[in-house]
Design brief:
- Helix content is 29%, strand content 16%.
- The protein has 15 helices and 18 strands.
- β17 and β18 (540-541) form a beta hairpin.
- The longest helix is centred in the middle third of the chain and has 31 residues, at 281-311.
- Strands 6-5-4-3-7-1-8-9-2-10 form a ten-stranded mixed beta sheet, sandwiched between helices.
């Protein structure tokens, strides 16, 4: 039955190929077109080519014909990741750190500052046309909008998640700077974002210039809204429960080479009940079915985007990058109309912590935290002219790397100033040497801070802490699922990494909501002195349990 249901999608490329092209094939340019596609709140194991049962044939095809990263990172939340993606800077440097109305730190203003440059602003002088379709979430006032930061054409949801069927006031959508409202009973945000992306590719096909297209889907961010026909394809599939689903994905990911078989699947979150003890299983099944349907519909949209690239003659010389802004969300949302099933327009709910744990298989924790479950993302790079298909790379990558990758691919330069003000230097590195098979990236150190949650990764070592906890040390080469804390066994390594994090935090003007327990970077202890003793820090004790 499932195979029969997939026939329309499987036949779609062949049917479209028989139709006349929407526009005359564009002339081949030396510089590639660049399409960056971002999902919202998508977990590490939520698409087929990363171990999911959710049907994502179009993303799976991109992965089969391109490169997949198994160790790629975002910033753990919507706007900080978007800031880094567009600027190549850490979010605090770009002006988007921990946003709070009570914050007095101008670095946490919640919109891009004047010391950063967006990839759209950088590519325009290199001859690129620039487009945005989807979620912006980096400022809603004049001077902070997409058109102010380099996008010549845009269809932008300015804020965060909103009703996918348009049944909600207060969320602004700007089309080329003009406020627009959802129209028609068939309006569905994911489809509309795809429609505009397709329109922009066709518009670009009428010009000789290369183009940048940033497609920023809100799917599958709550509220969990999906078309009825998509939900029906998954209804009942999740009656097995979250425990069984985690195990299935875990074993599938091991077989695919996405994760090391030596990494243990962490125990279920203690706040999540055993599936057999859940009394409203059908309602929970509906939530996950609707969530899966949202991803399915997004993949259908990506298929339409790819078909349009092929029909306009742009595909062979187009670099496509796909990733998620953070891990699956454990947020509990339920404020829809009573009695309306999840997924319908009048509902307004999240899929909850239990299913988020399955989305983030095999990792711990969720969106907001900087343990692997919050910051690990699928990352696919596709470029027929340059990338050999079927690559699976364990090289560490970060959302910081998207900007320098695009610049190198386009042959564009990063200026030293913007509007007369000095720009901060890029923090990311180009991934082109990896995805084109020329070389690997030099081992690096990357950092995180979000609402007091903090981490540093250097090579195989990761030091991480919750906002209310102390540092924990993990060897990601043997234990990327963060099961065994080594901070007591290796206190000198923990203190060393905590010092690096402290120095980085100072350099980026990181301000946490509460005092952090940081190791002094200058403190040196031998293992003999450190063993069995509490390590002194700036504000408390050294690494220990959470």
């Amino acid at each position: 039955m499932n195979a029969l249901r997939q026939l329309p999608i499987l036949l779609l490329p062949f049917l479209l190929a028989a139709l006349p092209t929407a526009a005359a094939p564009r002339a081949q340019t030396t510089k590639p077109n660049i399409v960056v596609i971002m999902a919202d709140d998508l977990g590490f194991s939520d698409i087929g080519c990363y171990g999911s049962e959710i049907r994502t044939p179009n993303l799976d095809r991109l992965a089969a014909e391109g490169a997949r990263f198994t160790q790629f990172y975002n910033n753990g939340r919507c706007c900080p990741t978007r800031a880094s993606l567009l600027t190549g800077l850490y979010p605090h440097q770009a002006g988007v750190g921990h946003m709070t109305a009570r914050s007095k730190n101008p670095a946490y203003q919640g919109f891009l500052n004047d010391r950063c440059l967006t990839v759209a602003e950088a590519l325009q002088p290199a001859g690129y046309r620039t487009y945005l379709s989807g979620k912006w979430h980096l400022g809603e006032r004049a001077g902070r909008l997409p058109q102010d930061r380099g996008f010549q054409r845009s269809f932008a949801l300015l804020g965060s998640g909103s009703n996918y069927f348009g049944h909600e006031a207060g969320r602004r959508i700007l089309e080329d700077g003009r406020t627009v409202a959802p129209r028609g009973k068939d309006w569905y945000a994911t489809d509309v974002f795809t429609d505009r992306a397709v329109d922009y590719i066709r518009d670009a096909a009428t010009h000789q210039d290369p183009f940048l297209l940033y497609v920023s889907y809100t799917a599958p961010h709550w509220p969990i809204h999906a078309r009825a026909e998509d939900i029906a394809r998954y209804q009942g599939e999740y009656m097995q429960g979250w425990d069984a689903l985690r195990k299935q994905r875990y074993h599938r990911m091991r077989e695919m080479g996405i994760i090391d078989p030596a990494w243990k699947l962490p125990p279920r979150d203690p706040s999540v009940p055993l599936w057999k003890n859940v009394t409203d299983q059908a309602a929970w099944d509906r939530k996950m079915a609707a969530y899966a349907a949202m991803i399915d519909r997004m993949d259908q949209g990506i298929g339409r985007i790819m078909d349009t690239l092929r029909h306009t003659g742009a595909a062979e010389n187009t670099l496509v990058l796909f990733l998620s802004d953070n891990g699956g969300s454990a947020e509990t949302i339920d404020r829809g109309v009573a009695g309306i099933p999840v997924g319908a327009p009048q509902s307004y709910a999240s899929y909850g912590r239990p299913w988020a744990g399955a989305s983030n298989t095999p990792f711990r924790l969720y969106k907001h935290w900087v343990h692997e479950g919050g910051i690990a993302t699928p990352f696919i790079a596709w470029w027929p002219d340059r990338i050999r298909g079927g690559q699976l790379t364990p090289q560490v990558g970060h959302v910081l790397d998207v900007m320098p990758t695009c610049l190198e691919a386009a042959g564009a330069t990063y200026p030293s100033s913007r509007n007369g003000g000095e720009l901060l230097p890029l923090q990311g590195v180009s991934l082109l040497p990896i995805i084109t098979g020329k070389s690997s990236v030099t081992p690096r150190t990357v950092f995180w801070e979000h609402e007091g949650n903090r981490a540093v990764r250097q090579g195989r070592w990761k030091l991480v802490a919750k906002a209310t906890g102390r540092w924990n040390l993990y060897d990601l080469e043997t234990d990327r699922t963060e099961v065994r804390d080594l901070s007591r066994e290796m206190p000198e390594k923990a203190v060393e990494l905590a010092g690096l994090w402290s120095d980085w935090a100072l350099s980026c003007n990181v301000k946490a909501r509460r005092p952090l327990r940081l190791a002094r970077s200058s403190r040196k202890r031998t293992p003999q002195k450190a063993r069995g003793k509490k390590q002194k820090t700036e504000r408390g004790t050294a690494p220990s349990g959470e």
